[in-house]
Every structure is written in structure tokens, then in C-alpha cells.
Design brief:
Largest sheet: 4 strands, parallel
Shape: globular
InterPro entries: Barstar, Barstar-like_sf
Distance between the termini: 27 Å
Family: Belongs to the barstar family.
Strand content: 15-25%
Order of helices and strands: EHEHHEHHE
Radius of gyration: 14 Å
Strand order of the largest sheet: 1-4-3-2
CATH superfamily: Barstar-like
Number of domains: 1
Pfam family, one: Barstar
Protein name: Barstar (barnase inhibitor) domain-containing protein
Number of strands: 4
CATH topology: Barnase, Chain D
CATH architecture: 2-Layer Sandwich
Number of helices: 5
Helix content: 40-55%
């Protein structure tokens, strides 16, 4: 699989294996948001709060998420957001995942216009390491 960090971000992409090693080699900061078990917007916002290390003052809405991802004071210039267990989340929550993708893609575009980079990476658990 090609190294996603060797190219500018392009929408929601499949996360490479050994993502942290690849990211380190390209000076990309990585944060993971675990979507396992997320079934509603509140749980989704809590997953981002936890994954991004936000304070409880985080507004827990689409605008607040967009602001957090596009604020140069809060995010490094080369930043990868890894959405863990995204495929299952998307199948289970079609409308919510469409809203999430819209907010994330808008943020990615804004960050790009600032001359910075925001990779959006979907990661699936490996079949041999899945916990049942």
C-alpha cells in the first residue's frame, strides 16, 4: 500500500499499517478516535472529545468539531485523524456518518486552504487482532 503521507490529503482514505511509524517519518501528528460501539451523536462527540484530548468545554456539535480541527492553535500543521472501526460505524449509522464525513471533509478543505494538512484515515481492526 502506498504511503498516504507522501501525498496531500485527499478525502477519507484507508489508514496504512504501521501508521505511527510512517507518520513519524513525515512529521505527522496522529490522534485516534475509536468509533467502536458509537450509535448516536452524543457518543460520537464523546469519542472525539476523548480521542482528540479535548476539554469538557468542547461544544459537542458539528461546528465545535470543525473549529477544533481547523484551529491552528489546537492542531499541528501536519495532522492525521484516524477513525478506528469506521466501516462498522458507517454501516450501522448511515445518516450520522454522512454528517460526520461532511464536517470532516469541510475541515480538511479549510486546513488545506491555510497551507496545512489534515489526513482523514479510516482504520479497521485486523482480523487476527480483533477482540470478541
Amino acid at each position: 500500500m502506498m504511503n498516504v503521507f507522501a501525498h496531500p490529503p485527499a478525502g477519507l482514505q484507508q489508514a496504512p499499517h504501521e501508521i505511527r511509524m510512517l507518520a513519524a517519518g513525515h512529521q505527522v501528528s496522529v490522534r485516534e478516535v475509536v468509533l467502536t460501539g458509537v450509535r448516536d451523536k452524543e457518543a460520537l462527540m464523546l469519542a472525539f472529545l476523548s480521542g482528540l484530548g479535548l476539554t469538557h468545554s468542547f461544544g459537542r456539535n458539528w461546528d465545535a468539531l470543525y473549529d477544533v480541527l481547523t484551529d491552528p492553535e489546537q492542531r499541528p500543521p501536519r495532522f492525521a485523524l484516524v477513525l478506528c472501526d469506521y466501516d462498522v460505524f458507517r454501516r450501522r449509522n448511515r445518516q450520522l456518518s454522512a454528517q460526520l464525513e461532511s464536517a470532516l471533509l469541510d475541515a480538511q478543505q479549510n486546513v488545506g486552504e491555510q497551507g496545512r494538512m489534515l489526513w482523514l484515515l479510516a482504520e479497521e481492526p485486523d482480523s487476527d487482532t480483533r477482540h470478541w
